[in-house]
Amino acid sequence: xxxxxxxxxxxxxxxxxxxxVGVRDGVIAAVGTLAAVSAAVGGPVHDIGGDTLxxxxxxxxHHLYLVAxxxxxxxxxxxxxxxxxxxxxxxxxxxxGSGWLRLHGVRPLQLTEGRLPTAAELDAVCPDRPLHVMSIxxxxxxxxxxxxxxxxxxxxxxxxxxxxxxxxxxxxxxxxLVEQASFAAESATRRATDDPDGWVxxxxxxxxxxxxxxxxxxxxxxxxxxxxxxxxxAAPDLAVVAHRWHVGTAEIGDPAVPALAADGHPRAPLxxxxxxxxxxxxxxxxxxxxxxxxxxxxLPAAVARHxxxxxxxxxxxxxxxxxxxxxxxxxxRVLDADGLRRAVHASVAAGLSPAVxxxxxxxxxxxxxxxxxVDEVLRVEHAMVCDAALARRIGDAGLQVVAQPSxxxxxxxELTVLPLPDPLRLVPLRTLRAAGVHVALSTDYPAGTMSPxxxxxxxxxxxxxxGQVVHADEALTVEEAxxxxxRDAAAVLRSDxxxxxxxxxxxxxxxxxxxxxxxxxxxxxxEVTGTWSAGGRTFTAPTRAVRPPCT
Length: 551
Ligand SMILES: [Zn+2]
Description:
Layout: E1 2-9, E2 17-24, E3 27-32, H1 34-40, E4 45-47, E5 52-55, E6 57-62, H2 64-68, H3 83-93, E7 101-106, H4 119-125, E8 131-135, E9 140-143, H5 145-151, E10 163-167, E11 173-179, H6 180-192, H7 196-212, E12 215-223, H8 227-234, E13 241-246, E14 270-276, E15 285-287, H9 289-297, H10 299-306, H11 308-316, E16 321-322, E17 328-330, H12 337-349, E18 353-358, H13 361-370, E19 379-382, E20 385-386, H14 388-397, E21 400-403, H15 406-415, E22 425-426, H16 429-434, E23 438-441, H17 452-461, H18 478-484, H19 487-492, E24 508-511, E25 528-533, E26 536-540, H20 542-545
Parallel strand pairs: 1-4, 1-5, 6-12, 7-8, 12-13, 13-14, 14-18, 18-19, 19-21, 21-23
Antiparallel strand pairs: 1-2, 2-3, 5-24, 8-9, 9-11, 10-11, 15-17, 16-17, 20-22, 24-25, 25-26
The structure holds zinc ion.
The site of zinc ion (ZN) has 5 residues, from loops.
Protein name: Amidohydrolase
Keywords: Hydrolase
Organism: Pseudonocardia sulfidoxydans NBRC 16205
C-alpha cells in the first residue's frame, strides 16, 4: 500500500516531510517522493485527500485493563452540580445488574460540597445492594453500609499502609476510602464482579474507541498479574498494541513484584512494573518554610472566591508535617523513601522495568534517591508538581517523565483554586524539557480525557475548561507536543513506532487539519479521519468512508 495525497509529517528529524509512505507486511518499507516510494513498494495507492498524515498517536499511560473491567466506567462523569445531583444519578443506575454495583467517574472537587458522599448518604438511594462509587482517578472512593459490611470494614479496622479509612467523631467509618484503602476496595469489588468474557469484549471495543481517536499504541499502566492471560486472549483482536505494565498481586500500589512470563503476544507485550510512591490528588507536596507561609496566607482569598471547595481542597492533603528533609509535607505516601528504594531494586532484579507514579515534588525527590545505582532508564509517571532545581535533578539522573497535559484541561480550574507557591509549577512541561528531561505525554484515561488531540491542545495553549491559562511559559510548541505523543511516547514503551521511517511499524493517523497550521485553540477539535495499525485499517471516519479507497 502507498499512502499519499496530503501533508505527511514523519516526526523524523532527519526528514520531517514526505510525499508518500509505502507499507509492506505491516511495516513501513519506503518514505519519500511518490516516485521513489512507488518504485520501491507495489499495491494500491490510498489518497488521503489533502489530510495530514502522522505516525499513529501513542498513549504511554492509559488504563485499558480498568476500563474493560467495568460496564460503568465514567458513568458518573457528567456535569453534576452537587451531591444531590450525584445521588440522583446513582439512584438512576442502581437497578443495573445484581450483587456489587461499581460506578466510576465522580469529580468530587467539581461538586459544591467538594467531597464524596458518605455511606449514610448512599444508603438513602441504594440501601439494598453493596455499592462502590469511585472517583475519576480511583484514588478515592466511597461505599454504602452494605458495601462496608461486604468489605469487612468496621470501627476496629486499621488504616492500611498508605491509605485512610475516613471516620466520624466516634471512630465509625464514614464510607469514604482514600488512596490505598480505595485501591484495596477497587481490587476487591473488581474481583467480586469479574466477568472474563465481558472483559475481553470490552477491551476490544475500547481499543476501537482508541483507534477512533487516532491511537495505535498504549501503555496499560495497571494490569494485575492475572491480566497477562486475559490479554493473550484479546490481543489478536485489539486495534492497538497494548504494552502491559503490571501491578502487584493484591491491588494497585502493592509493591510485591509478581512472577511474569517475559514474552507475550506481539500486540500485548510485557512492559514492566508499576510502583506507587505517593497519592493522586493527595500527592506528596513538599514546601519550604517560606512556601508554607505563602500557601497558608493565600487561603483566605481562595475561600472568599471559591467557598467550601477551597477549604475542601486545602483539607485534602492533611496538615503539613515536618519531615527528615527539614521541609513541610502534606499528602499521602504509599511508599516511604526506603520502601521506594526496595521496590525499585526488586523490580529491576525481577527483570521488569519500573514505572513509578510520583505526582508531588516530595515523592519525585525521594525517587531520585531511590534510583541511585540503578542501571535502568526509569519512567516517572506524572511529576505534576516540580520546580527548575528538581527538574535538573531528574534530567541529570536520566529519568523519563510521562506527563498529562489534559489534566490542565480537565482539572485546571480546580487545581488552581489554591495557587502553588513559586517556584513550583503545575504540569511543568517547559521546565522539564529545558532541564534535558525526556518528556512523553499521555492521557491517563479514564482519569483524563481520551483524545490525544485534547492533550496536544492543552500542552500548547495551557488552557483549562473555562479558558484560563495555567503557567503560560510552560507551553510546548506543536512540534514538541506531537513528538511527545508519537516518537517520544513510543520511546518510553521501548518501541520503534511513533516515527515514519523504514522498518518502523506502519501505525498511521490521518487528520482533517494540520495541527501545525491550525488555530491552537482548535487543535483539540481536529477530526481524526483514518487510523492504521501495522498497516491494517482500524478506523475510517464515516464522512470519509464514501470516498473511493483507492485511486
Ligand atoms: Zn494512571
